Structure prediction request, 251 residues.
Amino acid sequence: MANPFLAPKRRRIFPLVLAAVVALLAAVAVGVAIESQLGPRAPRTYAPPAAIPLPGAPTPAPSSSSPKPAPSSVLNGSLELVEGRQLVNGVRIGYPHSTVGAVSASVEYMRQIGSTLDADRAAAVGRLVADQSWSDAPQQLAQGPAATRKQLGLPATGQAPANASVVLSPVEYQVQSATADDAKVLLLATYTTSSPGQGIQTRMGVYPLEMKWSAGDWHILTPSDNTDYSGLSAQPESPDASAKGWQELKR
Prediction:
């Protein structure tokens, strides 16, 4: 397979939170995911899913200043991911009450959220990984597969074709802030789609996740970050990635 990190193209920012939620809770900012296209033939018609893809919702204005890499002093260098103690409906849960546990959970949760074309599956993941304060997470997350199907030209419902798939794979991380019970984690991830009409495409995205320790495990809070992270996009394991604060994830 060709190197997916060649010839990065124009990046774009996509909102994460439903317009209805924004209207209802005006104080909640919209979460974003930043992606850069990889490969010389990557189409410009769609982007990797954010935690809550919002087809048709207005894109929020980027913040006035670009984020600066700020890895937690607790975590420096490569990180050996830990595995959740329990496997529930195909999702690993039950992580240590530590920053390493928060990063490990964020990798598992984002991988699960971004690697399905099944709305029911996305909702089930939401019920497992979202904090109880994010009460409508299952409904919001279920929109992701529906939007992705539309963008890939797939049937809106029913089983996806055998040769259609989406795979999100976090490869590097940085911790923007951390306390005993909270952590803001950024993940640099590849996003690969396969569909009969568009073939195989690989892109890269920067995914922010706000993690909270509650009910004996790490959970995702309602996305509330509208920072423009496009300036942190980089080729993994490159000097540029290191300079921007990215650190290796080991499995």
